Amino acid sequence: MSSTSAAIASLVFTAEELTLLTDVAELTPLFTWVVSDLDEVGWDAVFRGLCARGVLVPVAGPEGGVSIAEDFRGVLGVAFLAPRATTVATELAAAGGTRRTVLRFQDLALEHEELSRGIHAFTPDLPEAAVDGLVSVVVGFPAIAETALAEPVTLSIDAYVAAIQQLSAGDLAGAQLAWPEGSDYLAHLAGDPESVSFSDVERTANDVRARTLSFTLGTDALWLVTIGESIVSVRPVDSVTAESLVRDLVA
User: Fold this and answer.
1) Would the CA dihedral through 4, 7, 12, 18 be positive or negative?
2) What is the distance between the alpha carbons of residues 33 and 19, in angstroms, rounded to a whole number?
3) Residue 139 — pLDDT band, cuts 50, 70, 90?
């Protein structure tokens, strides 16, 4: 990274600007975004805006064109080249949803946060300690007492969705009747718990591998939710176990 980009606290781009920048860089990032349906005039305005900000600069030579300016290349290089991304997504009862992603490339890391729909912020030069700190803040589960680790309760995806739909309609008893083994978990969900999920994505030459841990957190209970291709499993865990699982995931 250049000394100029290192001094930048954060960089903010719209989804449309990111789309145009990935086209210029001819790279595909590990995170996705939703883009507005712009016409040619709209995309031209996006292009001119990036040029005015100095993000895109002319390329000297007979072929011309533009490239990403050096001051921005370090940050966007990490964003677009990162072979690994760790996402922390929270749904808090009071504050709504947030999603923060740490993107890692070699010994560099930056944080990506969607500030609002279509607005993306990047904080460069994130030390590795800050990655651990982000996990610590979000994993700050209340002290749920350690108990004997329960066997997971499993259900097919379709049956799970049907039970959740009944619960969402206010029919807890009906949902528990449809999924009696999951009665305790459904009662937990009826209390409108907060949810936190951690996803770790790694890109190799031939594949993208993703692992995810999801938790629902009530006033006195913490549940681990694992969603597979056809099966959902849930089980209560204590806060120490939960934090250990997360740290193993993002290590």
Assistant:
1) positive
2) 9
3) low
Indicate the pTM of the whole model.
0.71
CB atoms within 10 A of CB 220: 10
Per-residue model confidence (pLDDT) at position 13: 95
How far apart, in whole angstroms, are the C-alpha atoms of residue 19 and residue 10? 19
Tokens of 151: 């066997």
What CA–CA distance (Å, rounded) separates 71 from 80? 15
Q: How far apart are the C-alpha atoms of 34 and 116, rounded to whole Å? A: 12
pLDDT one-digit tens code per residue, 73-132 = 888 888 888 888 888 777 755 455 677 788 888 777 888 888 877 899 998 877 666 666
Q: Where are the beta strands (DSSP E) in 46-193?
A: 56-58, 66-68, 84-92, 96-105, 108-116, 119-123, 153-156
Q: What is the torsional sign of CA 131, 77, 45, 11? A: positive
Task: Pick left, alpha or beta for residue 62 (phi over 0 → left; psi -120 to 50 → alpha; otherwise beta).
Answer: alpha
pLDDT at 3: 37
- Secondary structure, 3-state, 70-105: HHHHHHHHHHHHCCEEEEEEEEECCCEEEEEEEEEE
